Amino acid sequence: MVGRPMLFLLFALSAVVATVVAVVGRRRRSTASAVGALAFLAAGIAGWSAADALLALIDDARIARVFQTVKFLAIGMVPAGLYCLSLAVADRRWRPSRRMAVLLGVEPALVLAAIATNLWHHGFFLAADNVDPHGVSTPEVGPLFWVHTAYSYLLLAAALVRLLHSWITGPPAQRSLYGAILAGASVPIAANVVSLAGLIPVTGLTSVGFSVTVVIIYWTLVHRSLPELVPVARERVFDMIDDAVATIDASGRILDLNTAAGQLLLRLAPGLPERLIGLPLADLLGGLPPADGGEIETALTDGSGRPVELNVRTSVLRDSRGGHAGWAILARDVTALNRQRRELEQANAQLLRQRTDLESANARLHDKQQQLEDSNAQLHRQLRTIELLRADLVEQATRDALTGLHNRRHLMEELRREMAGAAADGRPLSAALLDIDHFKQVNDRYGHRAGDEVLTWFAGLLGEGFRRDDVVARYGGEEFVVVFPGATAEQARARVETLRERVAGQEVRADEHELRVTFSAGVAAVMPGQSPDDLLQAADEALYAAKRGGRNQTRVAAGPQPETSHRAA
Predict the structure, then answer these.
(1) pLDDT at position 127
(2) Residue of 406, 430, 417, 421 lying closest to 538 (CA atoms)
(3) 5: helix, coil or strand?
(4) Contact 433, 408 (CB under 8 A)
(5) E runs forming strands in 184-270
(6) H or E segment at 553?
(7) I need a labelling partner for 356 at 20 to 30 A (CA). Which of 11, 371, 445, 503 fits?
(8) Three-state SS at 568
(9) Radius of gyration of the chain (CA)
(10) CB 497 within 8 A of CB 554
(11) How far is CA 326 from the centre of its chain?
């Protein structure tokens, strides 16, 4: 049984983590509505965890009742926050309306009123003094609590269904984002459902699980978008556009821009920082674009004092409610073209009486106009090329489509990087090759659908069972690889053994069949002069030694550490 001081520290840490996410998310809410919704969700979880922390130290039931009221008010924010997050992730133009805010606030207000008046009706908690002063478990509850629970899970289910629908039908490039958010939100919800049903003895830790969830979702939203996954390809695509292209928000700050736009801005203001995202473009161009967009020409001066004439086209960007969200800007340097036009005008004035020369000048002017039309056509072709290339980027994704783990290509890149770092710093590095035992029999007996569900289940345990710095990847078929930076072969073997015992002690439900799954593993530590392929080959040889030794065990390849093995009981 966990002691009260330990519970207080656990809940307090959870509250601090959720508060940090809420504060950072609120500061960055202008970048995307999903970040703002996540900040609201994190605020509710922070309040929930803080109330749990205080309840863990309180012995007086009356005071505990007050903090239980605060706790349930914070709990009411969580389903609403997750629902808004699912809307914002599915449609990035979505913004919360006042009507939705009022509707989502009705149920928490009713819950607060029910708890505050519980002494008179006992509809939420069955007895006035039946409040757990330590806050670890829910008091004996009445019918209003179950009404609140049913509403909360209906709202959570709506959010999960929307995320699942987006994951299934959304753009392939964004499915990893939807999948990560869906997985992160499902785990604490499922744990709470099982806890409320009385199927497991551990209760009261749902707020801690949600704190981990908001960290995962925030990291996914901010760091795992497609342009960040393939920055080199993205730059090449944008480099194909010779004109400056940028998007700005309603305040005039840069949201995104291509290389040509960055070069133009540095030419106009050489002292700008290297990172231009977030800078006020309106100040650099002399003001905000017209409210309704359009086309204008403006004359500026670059850092060398030379004039720069720009043809600027702007299109208004609107959110889901039709509100003004910003502008898309296309700027073309027409300094040379305008100079040529002025020279033509001067030539026409001088040769006005010479018909032949005038016709020649008109022909040249027509050619320039044709060049403009050709440039516009080329721009449309380039934009079409961008869309095609973006679709092709799906093929370069670093995630395995079935399990969501890193794929073999990403594994080899990370392994080369980690081995180079280990060689330079003199740190140990180990790798484990895991193979599900008798997996072919699962496919043959129960079908490939059951086999896929076993792989997905096993991949989920892998993702949860190792450290954040470890590299977990699907190597192929039923084989998986885990890279342990900073770990010796014996340390890696111990971690793999912990997972092996956990897997062997569980059952997995695959296509309506209850199965027992085990795996065999081979562990190898990197040795001087080895390549990634050599290291994996050594782990593979140890794996097959485990297979030959009876499966469901871990073997260590011959190396600096002594060979060890462990057979399941």
Answers:
(1) 61
(2) 430
(3) helix
(4) no
(5) 244-249, 254-257
(6) strand 553-556
(7) 371
(8) coil
(9) 31
(10) yes
(11) 24
